[in-house]
């Protein structure tokens, strides 16, 4: 398993895995790395190099998940990263996927019943995903920030576990959409356009999976530990 280190050149990340480029961009880091190392560029961009490496290595190696290390970082770092990722999904990924789907539908010359069903499913999925992201940005993250700031549990306030029960399983529904395409779509479309659309769904599914495990296994666990600490201190 190849894990990146501070001494490695930043260019080696993109050379090894071009899918890391949007992940790197979420830290405000852009192309034009020259011969600079990861540590040098993180210093220039005021990015925590250990946090940066933990994230990019998590995306690089599926079996790599430094839970103990990630738990040591401030939840605020994680929230900033997750919010930037949400903006990337909303502002770029979803519009791109929708454009690709529209192109596939436009290429279909006959009936296209199955594609219309796919389009309907996608619109419902997108609406649920946007609601999910909005829920986190407007309710869950502000709750965590307030908890870190005040170290108090407000009366009537939901716990992080209660917030989590309100979540929809967006990863599972994206997988359903992908399987509908692979198994049941009828021919009659431009196959190159369809392949590009399916590949975009695969890439988004992988990104969502890594995004969710960082959020669920790290941020939520941090907050649950903090809630327990506050409750314990309150009864002493």
UniProtKB/TrEMBL annotation:
UniProt keyword annotation of Metal-binding present: yes
Coiled-coil ranges from the UniProt annotation: 153-180
Location of this chain's protein in the cell: Cytoplasm
GO MF, any single term: metal ion binding
Annotated Gene Ontology cellular component terms: cytoplasm
All residue ranges annotated as the Hemerythrin-like domain in the record: 79-221
Name of the protein in question: Regulator of cell morphogenesis and NO signaling
Organism, scientific name: Mangrovibacterium diazotrophicum
């Amino acid at each position: 398993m190849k894990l990146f280190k501070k001494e490695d050149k930043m260019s080696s990340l993109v050379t090894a895995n071009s899918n890391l480029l949007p992940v790197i961009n979420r830290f405000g880091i852009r192309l034009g790395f020259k011969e600079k190392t990861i540590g040098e560029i993180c210093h220039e961009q005021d990015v925590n190099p250990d946090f940066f490496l933990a994230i990019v290595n998590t995306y690089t190696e599926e079996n790599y998940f430094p839970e103990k290390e990630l738990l040591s970082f401030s939840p605020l770092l994680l929230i900033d990263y997750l919010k930037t990722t949400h903006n990337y999904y909303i502002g770029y990924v979803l519009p791109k996927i929708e454009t690709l789907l529209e192109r596939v539908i436009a290429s279909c010359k006959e009936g296209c019943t199955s594609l219309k069903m796919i389009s309907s499913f996608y619109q419902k999925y997108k609406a649920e995903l946007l609601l999910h992201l909005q829920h986190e940005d407007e309710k869950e993250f502000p709750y965590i920030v307030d908890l870190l700031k005040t170290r108090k549990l407000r009366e009537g306030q939901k716990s992080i576990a209660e917030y989590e029960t309100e979540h929809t399983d967006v990863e599972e529904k994206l997988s359903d959409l992908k399987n509908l395409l692979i198994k049941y779509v009828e021919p009659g479309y431009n196959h190159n356009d369809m392949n590009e659309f399916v590949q975009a769904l695969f890439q988004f599914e992988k990104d969502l999976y890594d995004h969710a495990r960082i959020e669920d296994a790290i941020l939520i666990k941090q907050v649950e530990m903090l809630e327990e600490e506050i409750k314990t201190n309150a009864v002493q």
